[in-house]
Amino acid sequence: MSVERTIKSVLAAAGAEGQVHVVDVDDPTREVAIGADVPLVLSSVFKVHLVLAMLRAGDAGRDLRERVQVGEARTPGSPGLAMLADPVEISLRDLAALALTVSDVAAADALFDALGGEPALREPLAPLGLRATSLHGCCRDLFAAVAGAEDQAVSRATPRDLTRILALIWRDEAATPAACAQLRLLLRGQALRPRIAAGFLDQGWRTATKSGTLPGLRNDIGVVERDGRRHAVAISVRTAEGTPPTPGDDALLGRLARLAVDALG
Predict the structure, then answer these.
(1) Phi, psi (5° rounding) for residue 241?
(2) From residue 111, how far is each of 72, 143, 264 by CA, in Å?
(3) Last residue of a domain, one of 117, 132, 156
(4) What CATH number is associated with residue 103?
């Protein structure tokens, strides 16, 4: 049985649907692909694009130590700035660290605003050839769209575009080598790692990931490395809205990632 059929069987047994793209960073002809060219809602995964846009702005001369005033009114949600009661002064690069390592939505939105909004998110990434990626707004816009308060586009990309951006980062082609190294460091520092990383807990593996969650949707992207092998992974798993969560929901993404990476050898 092919690995694609095995992955589809695992998804079916879990009562889920999914998209998977896993590719060798150094040999893109070696891949596992299921729904790899169908766009998906990025959820918090868009923070990788946001931070890369910031780093590319830094490469172009923006001082990433620039201080930002974040007032008491801020986007509620995940741990981070939203937990604090008072105004905060913080640098652009520290906002980026919070946005990635603890998926801080308030920090991500403050960074988005400080950089200049949607054009500042899209334009720095235009040269990277992410033709199936469409970036719209920030976390507060996504939350409004999910709640039905606004009829607006949300950020989407295909799994293939997601592994492309990861491969560019790991090959130092997405920005300067120093900027790519900084982004890799942040992705390796993700505080919560229950998805792709769950499939690579045995000794010798190194993982760097960024997850995203919405009702009925679990995303995770990242790079897994061992013995000189580097694989970029993008996985999205969907269950029917209202389905009660189970302890194995997050680990399922790690199992799928491991099946694909092992098949590529």
Answers:
(1) -60, 135
(2) 15, 17, 38
(3) 156
(4) 3.40.710.10
Whether residues 164 and 63 share a domain: the answer is: no
pLDDT in tens, 142-196: 999 988 866 788 999 999 999 999 999 999 999 999 999 999 999 999 887 789 9
- Sign of the C-alpha dihedral computed for residues 86, 90, 96 and 102 taken in this order: negative
Amino acid at 15: G
Residues 94-139: tens digit of each pLDDT: 999 999 999 999 999 999 999 999 999 999 999 999 999 999 999 9
- Kindly report the three-state secondary structure assignment for every residue of 114-171: HHCCHHHHHHHHHHHCCCCCECCCCHHHHHHHHHCCCCCCCCEECHHHHHHHHHHHHC
Q: What is the C-alpha separation between 24 and 250, in angstroms, rounded?
A: 23
3-state secondary structure of 211: strand
**pLDDT tens-digit map of 186-232:** 999 988 778 999 999 999 999 999 999 998 999 999 999 999 999 99
202 and 238 assigned to the same domain: yes
What value, to the nearest 5°, has the Cα angle with vertex 247 and ends 242 and 251? 105
pTM tops 0.85, yes or no: yes
User: For residues 184 and 202, is the Cβ–Cβ distance under 8 A?
Assistant: no
Note down the domain range covering 112: 41-156
Between the CA of residue 249 and those of 11, 195, 229, what are the distances in Å?
11, 9, 27
Beta strands in the chain (DSSP E): 17-24, 27-34, 40-41, 67-70, 88-91, 156-157, 206-214, 217-226, 229-238
The verdict on 33 and 53 lying in the same domain is no
